[in-house]
């Protein structure tokens, strides 16, 4: 069961969300051919430490605990890429996902960036994925249940002949990074039976994070136990915001100081 947050609590989460946005600005400013993903991660890690925030991703349990403050996933890597010595090259697309906890409250956001010039079809994949997140946020102000938003997200991606990843979903967020409910970017099988749906009521705070693939929706785990790749090797994009439903409509908690988004 999801926990509803008071306006004061949402205000606290906004402070964490703003730091996450600032961390993304620092990471994005470093993106160029020749920079390693470990260098980007180190910058985000340093920024959170300076800001007295706790990086949320470091130590997440798995076969091996996640070792970094960011997930950095390149091209056919969908999510959960581990930063390391790999250097970016012109034409790569790079998904950066990061989150922090500030004064006990969490924020989580992701975006996919182009390194230099990418081919037009890949640029279109980035645009469609960014747009489907914007669409979802807008619909959160107009729909009464998440399944209605999810259906529109799925239809939008399908119209562009891409596929929505189903193996990973968004999540409730608050005191912990991953809370109830699960937030699929498609109408899940339980939702079709009327289960797993939830109401979009003031106080709900969720991380909405569509992952969209150019080819197949199917993913597999790499031998590092974390990195997810598309099974057909085609590129994948990922955009995420932490979003609160309020009396005045949806509020993006991981936006910039003037409400800037991706
Ligand atoms: Mg997330």
Descriptive notes:
With 262 residues, this protein is of the alpha+beta class. It has a single domain, classed as Creatinase/methionine aminopeptidase superfamily (Creatine Amidinohydrolase, Alpha-Beta Complex), CATH 3.90.230.10. Helix content is 29%, strand content 25%. The strands form 4 sheets. It has a 5-stranded antiparallel sheet with strand order 8-7-9-14-15, sandwiched between helices. Strands 1, 2, 4 and 5 form a 4-stranded antiparallel sheet that branches. It has a 3-stranded antiparallel sheet with strand order 3-12-11, with no helix packed on it. A hairpin with a 2-residue loop joins strand 4 and strand 5. The site of magnesium ion (MG) has 5 residues, from loops.
The structure class reads alpha+beta
In whole angstroms, how far apart are the ends? 30 Å
Poorly predicted parts: none
Name of the CATH architecture: Alpha-Beta Complex
- DSSP summary, beta strand count: 15
- Give the radius of gyration: 17 Å
At the third CATH level, what is the topology name? Answer: Creatine Amidinohydrolase
How many helical stretches?
5
The hetero compounds bound to this protein are:
magnesium ion
Morphology call: globular
Order of helices and strands: HHEEEEEHHEEEHEEEEEEE
Binned, the helix content reads: 25-40%
């Amino acid at each position: 069961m999801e926990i509803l947050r008071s306006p004061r609590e949402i205000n606290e989460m906004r402070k964490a969300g703003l730091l996450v946005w600032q961390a993304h600005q620092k990471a994005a400013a470093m993106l160029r051919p020749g920079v390693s993903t470990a260098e980007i991660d180190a910058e985000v890690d340093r920024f959170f430490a300076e800001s007295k925030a706790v990086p949320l991703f470091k130590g997440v349990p798995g076969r091996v605990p996640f070792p970094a403050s960011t997930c950095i996933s390149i091209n056919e890597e969908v999510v959960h890429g581990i930063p390391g010595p790999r250097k970016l090259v012109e034409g790569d697309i790079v998904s950066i996902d990061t989150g922090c906890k500030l004064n006990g409250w969490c924020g989580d956001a992701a975006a996919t960036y182009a390194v230099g010039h990418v081919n037009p079809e890949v640029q279109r994949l980035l645009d469609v994925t960014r747009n489907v997140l914007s669409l979802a946020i807008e619909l959160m102000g107009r729909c009464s249940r998440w399944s209605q938003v999810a259906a529109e997200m799925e239809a939008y991606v399908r119209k562009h002949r891409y596929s929505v990843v189903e193996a990973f979903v968004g999540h409730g967020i608050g005191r912990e990074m991953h809370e109830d409910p699960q937030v699929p970017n498609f109408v899940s099988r339980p939702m079709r039976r009327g289960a797993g749906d939830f109401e979009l009521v003031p106080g709900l705070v969720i991380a909405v994070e569509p992952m969209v693939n150019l080819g197949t929706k199917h993913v597999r785990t790499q031998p590092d136990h974390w990195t997810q790749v598309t099974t057909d090797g085609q590129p994948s994009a990922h955009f995420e915001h932490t979003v609160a439903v309020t009396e005045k409509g949806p509020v993006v908690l991981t936006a910039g100081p003037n409400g800037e988004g991706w």
